[in-house]
UniProtKB/TrEMBL annotation:
Keywords: Oxidoreductase. The keyword rRNA-binding does not apply. One of its GO terms (molecular function) is oxidoreductase activity, acting on the aldehyde or oxo group of donors, NAD or NADP as acceptor. InterPro entries: Ald_DH/histidinol_DH (IPR016161), Ald_DH_C (IPR016163), Ald_DH_N (IPR016162), Aldehyde_DH_dom (IPR015590). PANTHER family: ALDEHYDE DEHYDROGENASE B-RELATED. Signal peptide: none annotated. The keyword Methyltransferase does not apply. Gene3D superfamilies: Aldehyde Dehydrogenase, Chain A, domain 1 (3.40.605.10), Aldehyde Dehydrogenase, Chain A, domain 2 (3.40.309.10). This is 3,4-dehydroadipyl-CoA semialdehyde dehydrogenase. Residues 21-469 form the Aldehyde dehydrogenase domain.
């Protein structure tokens, strides 16, 4: 029988009492490890994190907490090769795709370590300037941000077991808030291994960092008024979290990142083969194939002028045809597997749903698998769909309402800029949209028109074609999240991420008292 991974709770490693759920290699079909959380004393674990971990973290300054993040980064960097091996086996990703997750997570952790160091020897943050409350300036108000005296529960998605861990944990720990991580079961191995390496290095105070693998049953029940919960996953699960008594009755703060029908838009005025045209084709193909399209930020809908529909379809299909699919251990393979058999079935069902309203422009099922058995491997080639009837009211409503979480995108034509912007907004809010063109004024105007319905607007013009960080790459300096169906949440965005883990309060006092707040060493 394979190894049963331990959970880390109440400051010690402990195995669940059940047989466990098996994790599989999505290419070879072999069982890797098992996870189980049966029998854990969750109440004790949450109390320990709040009382021991939280108290110890809050006693440190931002700079001291940043030093802990830096120390954790060094440990993770030293074990990087092992993480790549786990990602290949458990997520079925090629090396470049594993880097998006693993190195992306380490980069984010390092970024927050540097930001925290710059905050200095403080334990709270000022929010704005003092405000006079009357004619006499002696009595004023100063808003402050202080760490919440609770625990942060993270319920993460299967597609980013490394980055999903550290993009949440880094700002929480820097804020002085202990974290309990519940990774998605299918890929929990990498998250558990990273936590294990950091815990065994003895970097953080006991209770500051915990991990629970297996079922999430009972976790939400433990949350108290000053705790926070951050969730990444399906809209259905998000609805369950939002309706939980911890949120409804105890006002637990919640952050949600859910489904997202992200778009790419080529603005009018471009010709086939122009630099902006080529940038769109390259970026869409990349977003369809990186991590086999299993990214919450991947491009799902591609909008182009009606006159360029055929040209874009041909150019995209030609690029996708060069994508080799199969066993990520083979150096010739450029796209690995979906994460599980259930995910493969979901992608196939989603394709069947969309093709009722769209034609197949490039058929991923025709890609021969490299060094992989089609009967076992959870592999599917990139599939480009298309329809010339792009308006939701005219027969393409499924395209604007259904996300297939895999290497699938749909090409859609538009009549003019107003029509294009209206079609993009049919996604009802998303994490990111990317704009392509060479007219700076038109790009800026479109970016502002779409900003209210997107967490991030990624503008790619020829002058930054070689510099831009990628439609789907989430940089810690920029906001990650989105309104509407994307969940309405916000993460990252530099130091803005710390706001979720702090409480804002107005201190009304004499200018002498407030002067002490503005001089931390005096507090």
């Amino acid at each position: 029988m394979t190894e049963l991974l331990s959970n880390y709770l109440v400051g010690r490693w402990q195995a669940g009492t059940g047989a466990g759920t098996a994790l599989f290699d999505p290419v070879l079909g072999t069982e890797l490890v098992r996870v189980d959380a049966t029998g854990l004393d969750l109440a004790a674990g949450f109390d320990f994190a709040r009382e021991q971990g939280g108290t110890a973290l809050r006693a440190l300054t931002y700079r001291e907490r940043a030093a802990l993040l830096s120390a954790a980064l060094k440990v993770l960097q030293a074990n990087r090769d092992a993480y790549y091996e786990i990602a290949t086996a458990n997520s079925g990703t090629v090396k470049n795709d594993s880097a998006v997750d693993i190195d992306g997570g380490l980069f984010t952790l390092g970024t927050y370590a540097r930001m925290g160091d710059a905050l200095g020897e403080r334990r709270f943050m000022l929010d704005g300037d003092m405000a006079r409350l009357g004619k006499d300036p002696l009595f004023q108000s100063q808003h402050v941000l202080t760490s919440t005296h609770g625990v942060a529960l993270f319920i993460n998605a299967f597609n980013f077991p490394a980055w999903g861990l550290w993009e949440k944990a880094a700002p929480a720990l820097l804020s002085g808030v202990p974290v309990i991580i519940k990774p998605a079961t299918a890929t929990a191995w990498l998250t558990q291994r990273m936590v294990r390496d950091v815990v065994e290095a003895g970097i953080f105070p006991p209770g500051a960092l915990s991990v629970v693998c297996g079922s999430s049953a009972g976790l939400m029940d433990q949350l108290q008024p000053f705790d926070v919960v951050s969730f990444t996953g399906s809209a259905e699960t998000a609805a369950v979290i939002r309706s939980h008594p911890a949120v409804v009755q105890r006002s637990v703060r919640v952050n949600i990142e859910a489904d997202s029908l992200n778009s790419a838009l080529l603005l009018p005025g471009e010709a086939a083969g122009s630099p902006a045209f080529e940038l769109l084709v390259k970026e869409v193909a990349r977003e369809m194939t990186v991590k086999s399209g299993q990214k919450c930020t991947a491009i799902r809908r591609v909008f182009v002028p009606e006159a360029l529909y055929t040209s874009v379809a041909e150019a995209l299909s030609a690029r996708l045809a060069k994508t080799t699919v199969g066993n990520p251990r083979n150096d010739t393979v450029r796209m690995g597997a979906l994460v599980s058999r259930s995910q493969l079935a979901a992608v196939r069902d989603g394709l069947a749903h969309l093709t009722a309203q769209a034609e197949i422009l490039h058929d991923g099922s025709r890609h021969a698998l490299v060094d992989a058995d089609a009967a076992l491997a959870c592999c599917v080639g990139p599939t480009l769909l298309g329809t010339r009837d792009a308006s939701g009211s005219d027969g393409a409503d499924r395209i604007h309402d259904t996300e297939v979480f895999g290497p699938v995108a749909t090409l859609l034509p538009y009549r003019d800029t107003a029509h294009a912007l209206a079609l993009v907004r049919r996604g009802q809010g998303s994490l990111v949209t990317s704009l392509y063109g060479s007219d700076a004024a038109a790009l800026a105007s479109a970016a502002l028109e779409l900003a209210d319905s997107h967490g991030r607007v990624h503008v790619i013009s020829p002058d930054v074609g070689a510099l831009q960080t990628g439609h789907g790459n989430v940089m810690p300096q920029s906001l990650h999240g989105g309104p509407g169906r994307a969940g309405g949440g916000e993460e990252l965005g530099g130091l803005r991420a710390l706001n979720f883990y702090h409480r804002r309060s107005a201190v009304q006092a004499s200018t002498d008292v407030l002067a002490h707040l503005r001089t931390p060493s005096a507090v």
